[in-house]
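I would like you to sit down with the record closing this message with an eye to the fold:
=====
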Amino acid sequence: MANTNLKCSAHNCGYNNSGDCYAGGINVDGKNATTTSSTVCSSFIDKANGEFTNTSSSENCVCTENIKCEAYNCKYNENESCNADQVKINANNASCETFCSK
């Protein structure tokens, strides 16, 4: 079982493996975000594009210390790093569901 606290509902993302993220590290964009819908996981890669192959193992899944966060208005953003205990990425638009305005 993976040791990750980044849960991803975007099952069409190439890094999603049974709800856990295996990107190695992600970026959350939304410099001026004041709501969840204004954020986005910019590391998202659509599986449908064909060339991406997930060869990741549980040894390189993403934990919150591997999340670069540019959502400056989020209370979990600490020097452009996420300090939330757990992060969830939305299935429909790859937004950061953990975003919480300061």
Remarks:
- The chain has no helices and nine strands.
